[in-house]
């Protein structure tokens, strides 16, 4: 243990749970190399194909974009007539979409990805964070659901979400679904339910394909919203390099199928490991597992001091989220750290 324990009360405006460089700086005496379990990103990324010189040397043309969008529609199970827009990272769409609408009441199913509430508040909307679908107000024009939810992996019956979308449409509202973690199990996706009026669905390319640094996402939904978003983005919002890589990855059916199977297996292995150490499992997706523990801040710090970075949530004390280790060495290192934590906890109990 470090000679002097640091305070884990972090400045929310400065702290982002997935910022490995922050951890490396704050825990500078930790033994490296760092094992980053803080993100819900596939640790076995899609292999970068050879990139044409043209992708680097000139602006992307309409043909490249249309090829990528067609591949994305097929991968996500959207109809040919569905409206789709590519964005340079889903985060940007989360920030832009609230500014496309007049100020209204927005209900957000929480706890979830905090940037949704922050973005709608910054755009001047009245935001309510609710804990279940039954709490949705009749005054709410927009409802935000992350599905599967981040950080707990919670999902809902598709029929309930479809009914909610229809109810909101009847009062000129909109259901917005963030499906950043749905690509490992498309059975929970509502892309096939998209109509002229909704829902609006956000997709992240980087998580499933393990290429978050490419900064690419997609929005599918009502034509007016998609057109407004595309106009707000302006031309060449997505790079030609991103388009070329994504078009190949989205069409690689063999890699996609094998990766879905391997991620599901790894997620089950992670849940089993955490249960063996007595953790209270809140939920999981195929890319992460979330636990609740009274001493979450202490465990977070214990792991960081050993160069293992998981995801904590300053606004949700007690929650820790673990991404998937990659190599067998990573699994063994993580297991050894949990063994050390358990022994230390047992020693304290016996004192």
UniProtKB/TrEMBL annotation:
InterPro entries: Aminotransferase_I/II_large, CobD, NHTrfase_class1_PyrdxlP-BS, PyrdxlP-dep_Trfase, PyrdxlP-dep_Trfase_major, PyrdxlP-dep_Trfase_small. This is threonine-phosphate decarboxylase. One of its GO terms (molecular function) is threonine-phosphate decarboxylase activity. PANTHER family: HISTIDINOL-PHOSPHATE AMINOTRANSFERASE-RELATED (PTHR42885), THREONINE-PHOSPHATE DECARBOXYLASE (PTHR42885:SF1). It comes from Sneathiella marina. Pfam families: Aminotran_1_2. It catalyses: O-phospho-L-threonine + H(+) = (R)-1-aminopropan-2-yl phosphate + CO2. It is an enzyme of class 4 (lyase). Keywords: Cobalamin biosynthesis, Lyase, Pyridoxal phosphate. The gene is cobD. Its EC number is 4.1.1.81. Residues 70-331 form the Aminotransferase class I/classII large domain. Gene3D superfamilies: Aspartate Aminotransferase, domain 1, Type I PLP-dependent aspartate aminotransferase-like (Major domain). NCBIfam families: L_thr_O3P_dcar. CDD domains: AAT_like. The keyword Lyase applies. Decarboxylates L-threonine-O-3-phosphate to yield (R)-1-amino-2-propanol O-2-phosphate, the precursor for the linkage between the nucleotide loop and the corrin ring in cobalamin. Its cofactor is pyridoxal 5'-phosphate.
């Amino acid at each position: 243990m470090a000679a002097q324990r640091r305070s884990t009360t972090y400045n929310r405006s400065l702290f982002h749970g997935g910022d490995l460089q922050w951890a490396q700086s704050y825990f500078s005496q930790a033994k490296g190399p760092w094992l980053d379990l803080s993100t819900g990103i596939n640790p076995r990324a899609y292999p970068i194909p050879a990139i044409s010189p043209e992708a680097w040397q000139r602006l992307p043309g309409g043909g490249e974009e249309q090829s990528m969008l067609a591949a994305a529609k097929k991968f996500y199970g959207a109809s040919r007539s569905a409206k789709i827009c590519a964005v340079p990272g889903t985060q940007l769409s989360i920030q832009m979409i609230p500014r496309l609408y007049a100020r209204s009441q927005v209900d957000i199913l929480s706890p979830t990805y905090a940037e949704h509430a922050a973005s709608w508040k910054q755009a001047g909307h009245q935001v309510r964070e609710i804990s279940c679908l039954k709490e949705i107000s009749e005054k709410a024009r927009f409802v935000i659901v992350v599905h599967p939810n981040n950080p707990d992996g919670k999902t809902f019956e598709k029929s309930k979400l479809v009914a909610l979308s229809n109810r909101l449409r009847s009062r000129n509202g909109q259901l917005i679904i963030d499906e950043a973690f749905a690509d490992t199990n498309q059975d929970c996706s509502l892309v096939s339910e998209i109509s002229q009026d909704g829902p609006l669905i956000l997709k992240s390319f980087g998580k499933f394909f393990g290429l978050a640094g490419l900064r690419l996402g997609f929005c599918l939904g009502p034509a007016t919203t998609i057109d407004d978003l595309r106009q707000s983005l302006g031309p060449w919002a997505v790079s030609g390099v991103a388009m070329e890589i994504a078009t190949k990855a989205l069409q690689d059916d063999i890699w996609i199928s094998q990766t879905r199977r391997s991620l599901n297996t790894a997620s089950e292995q992670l849940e089993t490991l955490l249960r063996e150490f007595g953790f209270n499992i809140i939920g999981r997706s195929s890319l992460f597992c979330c636990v609740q523990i009274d001493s979450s801040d202490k465990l977070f710090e214990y792991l960081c001091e050993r160069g293992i970075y998981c995801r904590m949530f300053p606004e949700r004390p007690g929650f820790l989220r673990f991404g998937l280790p990659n190599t067998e060495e990573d699994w063994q290192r993580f297991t050894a750290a949990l063994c050390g934590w358990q022994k230390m906890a047992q020693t304290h109990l016996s004192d």
